[in-house]
Design goal:
Blueprint (H helix, E strand, L loop, with lengths): L4 E2 L4 E5 L5 H14 E2 L3 H9 L3 E6 L5 E14 L2 E13 L6 H21 L5 E8 L2 H4 L1 H5 L13 H14 L3 E2 L4 E2 L6 E2 L14 H9 L8 E7 L7 H15 L1
Parallel strand pairs: 6-7
Antiparallel strand pairs: 1-2, 2-4, 3-10, 4-5, 5-6, 7-11, 8-9, 9-11
């Protein structure tokens, strides 16, 4: 397929194998500015196992945002499950807002592009997400009607079994009782803005994240599982994939 692009915002979905040395270096520098305990060797190992990068660059070719992704496949309870796993993600603080929203929109478009391409060889397709900050977790209720875990419900036994198998494939240490992934050598989110330390405490989703992942500041990740279907999208999510649907129809 041709790469998905958003030329206005300098965004594109790029195969990992097609990244230039300059782009990889820019991604590493951005990640290190957003997270502590990020080594070049670990970054390269993690990147090389991914398939795609949603990459944002400015007029000087500086990387201002990126997120990585790969497919995982398992068989659970007699079903063929495919999941899109999100890896390292970072954005420059001065771009957070409309520009970062464009990057999220392209990520969602890419996921639903893969849903269309893989519909015949998977019974169900999910987004398998691990969150180190409430801001990344907060995207879920904005884009999807149903996801787990959250304010509305816990992860079901069937969903937990799927996560257990996906975690085995990915090599993640997942605790089904807590819903937490504990990495062997985790990157730690840095404080990169003037936002209050407890920003979002009036938001029930932020409060849930903090209660569910009390070790976030030490690098613990909260696991989420989201069914990728058009009926599971909020009105905002529907708008995000509208352009992709137009392109496929064309």
């Amino acid at each position: 397929m041709s790469d998905l692009v958003d030329e206005r915002n300098g965004l594109a979905v790029i195969d990992v194998k097609n990244l230039t040395a300059e782009q990889r270096r820019g991604m590493l520098e951005l990640l290190q500015s957003c997270y502590a305990n990020v080594s070049e060797s670990q970054f390269n190992r993690d990147l090389d196992e991914k398939e795609w990068v949603v990459l944002g660059t400015d007029d000087t070719s500086e990387v201002w945002c990126f997120t990585t992704m790969r497919r995982l496949r398992v068989n659970v309870d007699g079903e063929r499950i495919m999941a899109l796993y999100s890896g390292d993600t970072a954005s420059r603080p001065d771009t957070r807002g409309a520009a970062t929203a464009a990057g999220i929109r392209l990520l969602v478009r890419k996921m639903f592009h893969e849903v269309t391409l893989n519909a015949s060889n998977a019974d169900r397709i999910f987004w398998f997400m691990i969150s180190s900050t409430f801001k990344s977790y907060r995207l879920l209720p904005m884009i999807f009607r149903d996801y787990a875990p959250g304010v509305e419900r816990k992860m079901s036994g069937a969903e937990t079994r799927i996560v257990v198998e996906l975690s085995k494939v990915k090599g993640l240490s997942f605790n089904p009782a807590s819903g937490i992934v504990r990495l062997e050598n985790p990157s730690i989110p840095r404080a990169l803005s003037n936002e209050p330390e407890r920003e979002g405490d009036d938001d029930p989703h932020a409060r849930f994240f903090r209660s569910a992942n009390p070790g976030a500041n030490e690098g613990d990740r909260l696991v989420s599982l989201i069914r990728l279907t058009e009926t599971n999208l909020t009105p905002l999510g529907e708008r995000m994939i509208a352009l992709e649907q137009e392109q496929l129809a064309g």
